[in-house]
Amino acid sequence: MDPSITAAALLEEEGRVRAAGTGIQPADLLGCWQLEQVWPKGKRQAAQFSGVLLRGLAAQLVIQMQDGELQLRNSVRLGGVELFFEGPGALKGGRPLLQFEFLRMGLRVAGRQWWGRDLPAPAPQRMPFFALIQRDPSGWLAARGRGGGLAQWRLARQDGPS
Fold it and tell me: How far is it, in rounded angstroms, from Cα 73 to Cα 69?
């Protein structure tokens, strides 16, 4: 983890982007993002237990472009068991907000789909989102979630030829 990524630094940047926006484009978000740190709403100290737990569960957010639309997959994994949620997303506004709706959830065991279920679409006023704060060129992303907490992810390294 990068020690320079603090709640204070993110709050300062968040104040700036509320007025000026981030300039983040869909292509900037593509990839596999591994959760590194979380800060509960109103706290300046990272939630150590939650962070360790979520990193231990290999929490990740995969964002891909499919047929011109962003597709998100949020998952946690313990050994060979993976719980995932997936569905479409879109950037809205100048800040922007990454709005999404998880329309499917499932469980994979040893790489095979074991169980799956469709989820109801959320009401428009209850759509989940990440208010994007920064996509740093060094490979990290920070955002505030609908519940008010802050999160910071690191782009997973891609092995093999590009």
Answer: 13
Rg (CA), the chain: 16
Residue 142 CB neighbour total at 10 angstroms: 24
**pLDDT tens figures, 8-58:** 999 999 999 988 989 999 999 999 999 999 999 988 888 988 889 999 999
Q: Retrieve residue 162's tokens.
A: 């590009």
Quote the pTM value. 0.88
Distances 102 to 32, 52, 56, 144 between C-alpha atoms, Å: 17, 25, 23, 18
CA distances from 145 to 7, 12, 30 (A): 14, 17, 18
Residue by residue, DSSP assigns 57-114 as TT-EEEEEEETTEEEEEEEEEETTEEEEEEEEEEEETTTTEEEE---EEEEEETTEEE
